[in-house]
């Protein structure tokens, strides 16, 4: 078979990589563009987000060539969390209003349960504080285990001094 020589162009620009890689990257960019331009994602357009890191976290540790039911379910949960679409009562009302019409938070029974209420419900305060404490300890240990100097270490006071980092109050913007 004779060698076929060709030049791949896109919008009159020569593509300087393999066609397979180019098509893969183009597909990825188009998928992101469609996601980014959804009406439900308008709030993310006003925020400076490191999308590369975000998608790496969403993808997790699974190899990109394999998709298991477990990894798919885990990614779905992460996306629902990112999109603030956890199965709260208010979220359930969108599809089953007849059932959930007058329901309040099933934990405190005081107010409607939306995404923000998960983090502000008075009944969740102890759980959230424990998560913060465990996270602080994890970060502290990870940093100190990776510091090369014997004269330098990070304390819990240093970790707590990060302004607004540990504040889980609600920002509706």
Structure write-up:
- There is one protein chain.
- With 173 residues, the protein is mainly α.
- The protein has a domain at 1-47.
- It is built from 8 helices and 2 strands.
- It has helices spanning 19-36, 42-45, 51-59, 69-82, 89-100, 115-120, 125-146, 156-160; strands at 9-10, 13-14.
- A two-stranded antiparallel sheet has the order 1-2.
- A hairpin with a 2-residue loop joins strand 1 (9-10) and strand 2 (13-14).
- It is flat, with a radius of gyration of 23 Å.
Quick overview:
This protein has 173 residues and is mostly helical.
Strand neighbour order, sheet with most strands: 1-2
Which term fits the overall shape? flat
Q: Please state roughly what percent of the residues sit in beta strands, choosing from under 5%, 5-15%, 15-25%, 25-35%, 35-45% or over 45%.
A: under 5%
Number of helices: 8
Terminus-to-terminus distance: 62 Å
E-strand count: 2
Keywords:
52% helix; 173 residues; mainly alpha
List strands and helices in order, with pairings:
Layout lengths: L8 E2 L2 E2 L4 H18 L5 H4 L5 H9 L9 H14 L6 H12 L14 H6 L4 H22 L9 H5 L13
Antiparallel strand pairs: 1-2
């Amino acid at each position: 078979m004779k060698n076929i020589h060709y030049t791949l162009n896109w919008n009159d620009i020569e593509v300087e990589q393999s066609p397979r890689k180019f098509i893969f990257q183009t597909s990825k960019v188009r998928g992101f563009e469609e996601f980014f331009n959804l009406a439900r994602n308008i709030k993310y357009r006003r925020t400076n987000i490191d999308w590369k890191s975000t998608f790496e976290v969403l993808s997790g540790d699974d190899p990109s060539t394999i998709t298991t039911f477990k990894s798919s379910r885990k990614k779905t949960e992460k996306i629902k969390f990112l999109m603030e679409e956890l199965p709260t009562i208010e979220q359930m009302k969108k599809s089953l209003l007849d059932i959930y019409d007058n329901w309040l938070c099933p934990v405190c029974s005081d107010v409607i349960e939306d995404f923000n209420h998960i983090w502000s419900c008075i009944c969740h305060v102890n759980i959230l504080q424990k998560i913060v404490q465990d996270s602080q300890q994890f970060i502290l240990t990870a940093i100190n285990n990776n510091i090369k100097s014997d004269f330098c270490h990070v304390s819990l006071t240093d970790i707590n001094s990060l302004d607004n980092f540990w504040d889980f109050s609600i920002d509706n913007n």
